[in-house]
Write a structure and sequence with these properties.
alpha/beta, seven-stranded parallel β-sheet, 12 helices, 12 strands, binds nicotinamide-adenine-dinucleotide, binds 3-phosphoglyceric acid, D-isomer_DH_CS1, D-isomer_DH_NAD-bd, EC 1.1.1.95
Length: 322
């Protein structure tokens, strides 16, 4: 009997006929669902029992969804890096391995982080808007040279930001409880010290239960007056009302945000109203080479989880303690 695989990962759905064809060559029937930002229990529970595998996006993988998927589901291949919307201990407990693509967006996302730093600190987008509107402004920006960059989360993306920022003549601080190996030009610091000294604070960490609203009214107050906040990690790292207040008061010099607490960013979000905020659409990962590599990796993980290829990748559920 052909194996059936549910595909909800948005990037794979965007090119679905191609992936349906590739999976068919492996004897897999790939099934798409109507495109939605992410799926929740009411979408998933009624259908989950019919699949051997799942190429998932940022869907809410809860114990109830996993229960509905058993006994048939053998593997979840998350398209991408972040698995914060998955209950990994629950998946491990029921024996469904979850694979992801760790570090796959190092270059793609760190390029965009530097883009936000340059844009906000040199008024590129706001000048573009002004010139299009018939004005000819001459804002004087701080730029990057001789500035201090504080990187919060020194994993793959954090390291990519450091490598690039170093080329702009910056001093680089990093905060990461795991303290991964770092180049000589990076100095680890505590979070308060990093916030107090940095002209740019760049959030590159994964989202966990412990770092929800890591950047809040209190930690924003610890940032240097005029500093710029960049978030390419996850929206939930930042308390948005507190960020909005810090922008309104002028305490922050600006922000570059690829990710938000609610995505797509609500039409009435006050963040849309600041000239010194550059907004993205959770698209920092969307760079051709990275996307193609993640397509390949995701299919490899899917095939390995279905027993169609020898195992070479380690499921992220294997890293869950207990
Ligand atoms: N904007 C995008 O398009 C995009 C694309 C890819 C990944 N991401 C997000 O970026 C995250 C990081 O990706 P990565 O490949 O660098 O992952 P990674 O696992 O290599 O690095 C994450 C690092 O963050 C650290 N960390 C966790 N909690 C922290 C905290 N409270 N303070 C400081 N550091 C903390 C971890 O110890 C780890 O070293 C992903 O988990 C994902 O959520 C966003
Ligand atoms: O975590 C990731 O890999 C990136 O944020 C983009 O992918 P996602 O939005 O599918 O998680």
């Amino acid at each position: 009997m052909a194996k059936r695989v549910l595909v909800t990962g948005l990037m794979m759905l965007a090119d679905f006929p191609r992936f349906r064809g590739l999976m068919a060559e492996k004897g897999i029937e790939a099934v798409e669902v109507p495109v939605k930002q992410f799926l929740t229990e009411p979408d998933l529970i009624p259908i989950m029992g019919e699949f051997d595998g799942w190429v998932a996006g940022d869907d809410r993988v809860t114990p109830a969804v996993l229960k509905a998927a058993l006994p048939r589901l053998k593997v979840i291949a998350k398209w991408g890096t972040g698995v914060d919307s998955f209950d990994l201990p629950a998946a491990k407990a029921v024996g469904v391995p979850v694979y992801n693509a760790p570090g796959a967006f190092q270059h793609a996302v760190s390029e965009v982080a530097l883009g936000y730093m340059l844009d906000v600190s040199r008024y590129l987008s706001s000048t573009d808007r002004a010139v299009r509107a018939g004005r000819w402004p001459k804002p004087c920006g701080g730029g990057l040279y001789k500035k201090t960059v504080g990187i919060v989360g020194f994993g793959a993306i954090g390291r990519g930001v450091a490598e690039r920022a170093a080329g702009f003549g910056t001093t680089i601080l990093a905060y990461d409880p795991m303290q991964p190996p770092a180049p000589d030009y990076v100095t680890y610091a505590g979070l308060p010290e990093l916030l107090a000294q940095s002209d740019f604070v760049v959030l590159c960490c994964n989202m966990t239960q412990d770092n929800v609203h890591l950047i809040n009214a209190g930690t924003l107050q610890q940032m240097k007056p005029g500093a710029i906040l960049v978030n390419v990690g996850r929206g939930g790292l930042v308390d948005e009302p507190a960020l909005i207040a810090a922008l309104q008061s002028g305490h922050l010099g600006g922000a570059g945000l690829d990710v938000f607490e609610a995505e797509p960013l609500p039409a009435d979000s006050p963040l849309r109203g600041f000239d010194n905020v550059v907004l993205g659409s959770h698209n920092a990962n969307n760079q051709q080479a990275a996307i193609e590599a993640v397509h390949v990796r995701t299919l490899e993980c899917l095939y390995q989880g279905l027993g169609l290829e020898p195992k070479t990748h380690t499921p992220v559920t294997d890293l869950v303690k207990g």
